Amino acid sequence: MQADEVLRRVRREPFMPETIWIVDEGTGWFRPLCRADDPKGWRREVESERSVIIQVDDGATERGRWPTSSSSAPYIMAKMLDALEVRPGLRVMEIGGGSGYNAALLAELAGAGNITTVEIDASLADHARRALTQAGYPVTVITGDGMQGYRENAPYDRVVATAAVREVPYAWVEQTRPGGLILVPWVASFHPDEPLATLKVETDGTAEGRFGSPAWFMPMRSQRLRQRTIRETEERWAAAGKPEACRYGVTVTPEGQRIWLDSPDNPIT
Ligand SMILES: C[S@@+](CC[C@H](N)C(=O)[O-])C[C@H]1O[C@@H](n2cnc3c(N)ncnc32)[C@H](O)[C@@H]1O
To answer: Is a pLDDT exceeding 90 seen at residue 215?
Structure first.
């Protein structure tokens, strides 16, 4: 089944919390939009083709500067699901459970019993668990740091991160079967487009792959970059002649990771 079909079949609304966040045009801050106060506005947001922000500033309640959890734009979810090549029976670990909506889409594709999702924020993990159960998807929702993966349900055929990294934890490679795929958005640590990488896990315990299209995901909590680092990335990339993201690749081994340009023989980090 194609991702587009799954997105038509599973509605986003049951996974959206009663309070979502929108930008206040006057102040530029995010402000809460409660379903009870503005049901039409709430519905317009959750039925839109945009991402829906479900948490700001790691759990602020009145106003916020930075989105820290969101249900991604449907076209991005579709693109990632198709790139992951999820089929019935494959075991999948998602990092960043958020609302639970993407886990429900994965459950439609692979079977709910095959899906594990790890969410670091306890209130979001509770929300995702409840929403998935009510919607009839008995996915395993783990409250914890996704950087460790979740060894108890390994090995996985697919790992998908829905928060960006600057370093792929080796735990994800160890917990993926040889031949399995790891799909992960990147922070702006080497390219300003924050591209997606698709890595294949090899029999020798390494994983390697190339970068592709931009994704612009919020970073994993421990992987956030300072604005200065982002500016320096842009300058380094410009000085290198602004290579397309697809010319870069990454190799992950037990000793660490290397990002390279054109070929693994040409590491840039
Ligand atoms: C873009 S949102 C995920 C969207 C989610 N897949 C959905 O369908 O709603 C990114 C999520 O990653 C979570 N996150 C950030 N750092 C994490 C970590 N170290 N381990 C697990 N989850 C993390 C955030 O709390 C946030 O909910």
So the answer is: no
